[in-house]
Every structure is written in structure tokens, then in C-alpha cells.
Write a structure and sequence with these properties.
The chain is of the alpha/beta class and 432 residues long. It contains nine helices and 23 strands. A hairpin with a 4-residue loop joins strand 13 and strand 14.
Length: 432
């Protein structure tokens, strides 16, 4: 485990809000190019000027963990000018910072899905990057618990699938489990995933941002994307209308377009693609709960056995880098992706779930903490269990009929774990 205190300089000295690209714009009705950048290791200075030619800059829309990883990867290439556009005042303020911060093993998503492939690659890349760059992480392992024989059979299927894709898992004898985590109750079986861990997602994203900028990338915060017009179906690029926090607008044209807008990705995609290729967004709100007591405090992540058809993995126990435990997320389908209030009415049901595997919990010490929203492409199962389960994979593709438009939809869990691998995939779609 890496000590958090060693790395406070990452968070304290790397600016999260970069000078808005519109500050030097003298007009709001022109066609602008991002040129004449002066780069330093911790920031960029952008200059906007009116041009008549197609913009050379490569925009990535959305500066969550995935957008940051993509922009950083693209900025590595010589001769490119990468612009990362973020509507909020800082990177990673939506789904990327409102999750469990788990480095997933990749055992839930079926044999042929992008989620499995990218999670397995991304997990390895995440651990390697964290070790190399001193980003706080902990390989704390995960237990999946069975309380009856039916759940035990589910865990056995999970173990066999994990083995088939090369991910180690094993059953922990119940006596050993009680000795290791005496407060955790498993009546029937404990399946351990030794490659599961946690990461400080905020410092991880801060590193990605700093490295992206040090490679010459430009970050435009407080910048919203409006209409996007494919020019000759993308053959001549894309015209992207943007608006700053002060209301100034500019039109950026580019040869490529990468949609990594998270909660807003589907609406952006639907504004570009023809109606027959439109998709419906689904928003799964998950509430998290903190724990104010010193006991019990397991040191292992604890998950209930997956429920067939459920859109989540149950109200599980995770922890942060200080060892403080938290519970969540649950699943609440909402229409408004901007409502991040924690739903107090769901606390009772969450406590009932928690008590099944942590019976000594002090219910009075479980507090409302935060909520996050997962962008989904359906209301089906979070675990791939076969035909008809409604499992939705990541949608990451170069859209047919639209030159150099890379579209990323439904980037929920395991998006954080997969982020570096997704970045490699997008780079490959554009350049191979």
C-alpha cells in the first residue's frame, strides 16, 4: 500500500481548473482554432484565433477518468493537438468521483464482452501505473459471500468462469474466514478475489490531468458542448458549438470527435446519429453510507452474492485509503442525472442488507454520505449470466458512416478500472 501523505503534493500543486479557452476570444460568432499554445508541466495557456481552415485539434468531450485517460493517450502522439472539454469547473466531478473506487477483478461480465476484456487489461495497467507513479492504492482483496446453498452454487459458477478467463479466485474455509474477519458473517461459503483492490480515484485523475497537460494537451473547463454538425458525414470533420461559463460561444472544427461525456454521452450521440440509431439512456442512482463507529471495521471488501437479474452488485462494504468503511451503492432508477442527493428513504433497506453479512453493525452510526449516478444502456443484469439477462456491454466504437467519430456509451462499472485500457482501444480505433 502507498502512503497517502507522500502524495499530497499531487492534489495540492496541480491546478484543477484550467484557463477557459474562450478568455482570449475577441468574437463569439467566428470559427476558432486552438493554436499557439504555451505549455508548462502544470497547465496550458490557450489562444483562440479566427481561422477558415479545418481545426487540427482533436477534442475529447468529457473529463472523467475515461476521458482523461483517452486525452492523455492521444496527446502522446507527435503532431497532434488534443483538447479536453469539460462542462464543470474541474475534472472527474460526476460518476468518476462518486463510486466505490474499486479496482475490479473482471469476473462478472461474461466471456466475450468489452467489459471483461478491458477490465482485465485495465486492472493490470492500473496497478502498474499506481506502483510506478506513487498513486495511492491497496490490493485489499474481495470476499463474495453465500448465505445459503443456492448462493453457494452461484459463487461456484463465478469461480469456474473466473478460472476460464485466467482470473484467480478461491474458496476460503469458513473457519479461516471467521479468524480473518470475525465480524463478517458467511453462513455457507466465501469466495475470495485476490486481485481486487481500491485506488484513490481523485489522485489518479489528478495524475492523468497533469500528465496530459505536460504532454501538450489543453483542458477547457466550464465549457459546455451544444450542437455538433458532421461536415459531409465527418469526411470534412465536425463543427462543435461550445459555450463558456460567461456565455461566450465559439465554434470548433476538428477532423475527429471523441464522445466520452458520461451521463450526457447518449444525448450527444443522439444529436449526431440518425434517429434509427438513437438509444435510450437509463440512470441508476446509487446512494452510499458512511460509518461513524470504530467497530466493526473489516479490512477486506465484502460483497453479497450477485442477485440474478439485479442491476447492481448489492449494497456492499468497501473502504477508502484511510481504512474508513462505507456501504453502497444501491440502485434507484431516476430520470434526472443531475440529482445527486442521497435518498434517506433508502437507508432502512440498505441497513437490512448490511446486517445480513455484518450483524454487529451499529445501525445508529450509519450515516448518509454521497450519491453517484451510473449511465446505463438498459435496466438488465449487472452480471452477465446468459441469454435473456439484459446485460449491457460498453458501447465503444467508431460509428459507421461517420468518419473518425468514436462513441463511448454506457461507461459505468468497471469504467474506472478499465480507463487506461479504454484509452488504448480508442487510440487504436483512430490510428490502426
Amino acid at each position: 500500500m502507498k502512503d497517502v501523505d507522500e502524495h499530497t503534493d499531487i492534489a495540492e500543486h496541480r491546478p484543477m481548473i484550467i484557463k477557459n479557452i474562450f478568455l482570449q476570444a475577441s468574437r463569439s460568432d467566428g470559427m476558432y482554432d486552438v493554436t499557439g499554445q504555451s505549455h508548462s508541466s502544470f497547465g496550458t495557456k490557450n489562444s483562440l484565433r479566427k481561422v477558415s481552415s479545418v481545426l487540427v485539434a482533436m477534442p475529447v468531450i468529457g473529463a472523467g477518468a475515461v476521458g482523461l485517460a483517452i486525452a492523455r493517450k492521444l496527446a502522446e502522439r507527435d503532431g497532434t493537438s488534443t483538447l479536453l472539454i469539460e462542462r464543470h469547473g474541474a475534472v472527474g466531478t460526476e460518476t468518476s468521483s462518486r463510486n466505490s473506487e474499486v479496482i475490479h477483478a473482471g469476473i462478472y461480465y461474461g466471456p466475450t464482452s468489452l467489459k471483461t476484456d478491458l477490465c482485465l487489461k485495465g486492472k493490470r495497467m492500473m496497478y502498474e501505473l499506481c506502483e510506478r507513479q506513487g498513486i495511492p492504492y491497496r490490493n485489499c482483496k474481495k470476499w463474495i459471500l453465500a448465505q445459503d446453498e443456492q448462493q453457494h452454487e452461484q459463487l461456484d459458477r463465478t469461480r469456474k468462469f473466473a478460472s476460464s478467463i485466467g482470473v484467480p479466485t478461491h474458496f476460503v474455509p469458513l473457519d479461516e474466514a471467521r479468524n480473518r474477519e470475525p465480524d463478517v458473517l458467511a453462513r455457507n461459503a466465501v469466495l475470495e478475489s485476490p486481485t481486487t483492490g481500491i485506488v484513490d480515484s481523485h489522485i489518479y485523475m489528478s495524475y492523468l490531468q497533469s500528465d496530459f497537460q505536460s504532454k501538450g494537451g489543453d483542458l477547457a473547463c466550464h465549457t459546455t458542448v451544444g450542437a455538433i454538425e458532421p461536415l459531409s458525414l465527418g469526411a470534412q470533420g465536425y463543427s462543435v458549438q461550445t459555450t463558456s461559463a460567461s456565455g461566450e460561444s465559439a465554434t470548433v472544427t476538428t477532423e475527429t470527435l471523441i464522445n466520452s461525456a458520461g451521463l450526457d454521452a447518449v444525448s450527444l450521440s443522439n444529436s449526431i446519429l440518425p434517429p434509427k440509431r438513437h438509444v435510450t439512456p437509463y440512470y441508476a442512482k446509487g446512494s452510499y453510507y458512511s460509518y461513524a463507529a470504530a467497530h466493526p471495521r473489516p479490512k477486506t471488501l465484502v460483497y453479497p452474492a450477485p442477485t440474478t437479474g439485479a442491476a447492481g452488485l448489492g449494497t456492499h462494504l468497501t473502504m477508502d485509503m484511510t481504512g474508513a468503511i462505507r456501504f453502497g451503492p444501491d440502485v434507484e432508477w431516476v430520470d434526472n442525472p443531475n440529482d445527486l442527493s442521497v435518498n434517506e428513504e433508502r437507508l432502512g433497506a440498505a441497513l437490512d442488507e448490511i446486517e445480513i453479512y455484518l450483524p454487529s453493525i451499529n445501525r445508529e452510526k450509519v450515516m448518509l454520505d454521497y450519491a453517484g449516478i451510473r449511465p446505463k444502456l438498459g435496466k438488465g443484469s449487472a452480471v452477465a449470466q446468459g441469454k435473456g439477462d439484459g446485460f449491457s456491454d460498453f458501447h465503444i466504437k467508431k460509428e459507421e458512416g461517420f468518419d473518425n467519430f468514436v462513441n463511448l456509451l454506457g461507461i459505468e462499472s468497471p469504467g474506472l478500472t478499465s480507463s487506461l485500457a479504454i484509452a488504448e482501444m480508442v487510440d487504436g480505433l483512430l490510428y490502426r
